[in-house]
Automatic annotation (TrEMBL):
PANTHER family: KETOHEXOKINASE, PHOSPHOTRANSFERASE SYSTEM TRANSPORT PROTEIN
Lineage: Eukaryota, Fungi, Dikarya, Ascomycota, Pezizomycotina
Stored Pfam families: PfkB
Keywords: Kinase, Transferase
Species for this entry: Penicillium salamii
Name of the protein described by the UniProt record: Carbohydrate kinase PfkB domain-containing protein
Domain Carbohydrate kinase PfkB intervals: 4-303
């Protein structure tokens, strides 16, 4: 099956520091790393590896819809190279007058494992009409794609989901509800078939556990067949509103935490892999367990290579 993931792409500049600096402090970083980031690109990079190494790859295609700089820019070429051969970026929205993608500057503290992110983006956001044109080619495909949204720019994203509902009525839509304090994410959750909440969003809405978030969200997310919530080192929970199935699993504990950036994106890759590509042979707890395990593995290594 084809997956279309819609979200921003960044170039991440990551400084690893022994502890998070105080304001106006001087601190020496133990390493500097620059790599492609962005929630959906990170998820697709991991999914590409799972499909390449997993049992059912034929006909599976992974597509990114993101706003990128000019098609001929060095950055856009590098972004394609880094995503691997199963990820297609030809339906992205290219801003020809720009040569640089959005950037994130990230401070990763070894003491706490936290990653503090400051973004800069001068590429104009995608509009609903640009999105509608970008997904039109999928109408000719033999199978209805699965659409996954990073929940950003909620006003436009909700219009995009409405467009999918009218143009691809059979399609399933998953939505990530991540950023604390971003207004409008609740509306996106209500429009999704699968909703993945972050701990940060849940806490900013007053929930104190993953289970509480899911149970209290359930009456508002009537369309959803699966709700999931990740809770950092306390693991993750999932609830199937239609069957009442609930599971909470502890975090996959690891000896050494090396890089937590994109752990949530990796969890989503594992979850989507189970839902889309192992829907027949994996049951509900196995899919959650797999996503959790993959995210646990990710934090023990730098970047996203060899996660399969
Ligand atoms: C990690 C990440 C980074 C990116 C930032 C965007 O989840 O996708 O790769 O810079 O978040 O908010």
């Amino acid at each position: 099956m084809t997956l279309v993931a819609i979200g921003a792409c960044y170039i991440d500049t990551i400084l690893t520091v022994p502890h998070y600096p105080g304001e106006d402090e001087k601190l020496r970083s133990s390493s500097l790393c620059r790599r492609r980031g962005g929630n959906c690109p990170n998820t697709l990079e991991v999914l590409g590896q799972l499909l390449q190494h997993g049992p059912r790859t034929e006909g599976s295609m992974l597509n990114l819809i993101s706003v990128l700089p000019s098609l001929s820019s060095v950055s856009s070429n590098k972004i394609q190279e880094g995503l691997g051969i199963l990820v297609d970026i030809k339906n992205c929205i290219y801003r020809e007058q720009f040569s640089e993608p959005a950037s994130s500057y990230i401070i990763m503290s070894q003491a706490s494992g936290s990653r503090t992110i400051v973004n800069y983006n001068e590429l104009p956001e995608m509009t609903r009409d640009e999105f509608a044109s970008a997904i039109e080619p999928f109408h000719a495909a033999s199978e209805v794609p699965w659409f996954h949204f990073e929940g950003r720019a909620p006003g436009v994203t909700i219009e995009c989901i409405h467009h999918i509902r009218s143009r691809f009525p059979e399609a399933l839509v998953s939505v990530e509800v991540e950023k604390p304090g971003r207004l409008g994410l609740q509306k996106l959750a209500e429009a999704g078939d699968v909703v993945i909440y972050s701990k940060g969003w849940a806490q900013s809405n007053g929930y104190t556990t993953a289970e509480e978030c899911l149970r209290k969200q359930m009456p508002q997310t009537r369309r959803a067949s699966l709700l999931c919530c990740t809770w950092g080192d306390e693991g993750a929970a999932a609830l199937e509103p239609k069957t009442g199935n609930f599971a909470h699993i502890p975090a996959h504990t690891s000896e050494q935490i090396v890089d937590t950036i994109g752990a949530g994106d990796t969890f989503i890759a594992g979850l989507l892999y189970g839902l889309i590509y192992r829907s027949k042979d994996w049951d509900f707890p196995r899919r959650l367990e797999f996503a959790n395990h993959l995210a646990g593995l990710k934090v023990t290594q730098e970047g996203f290579k060899d996660l399969h």
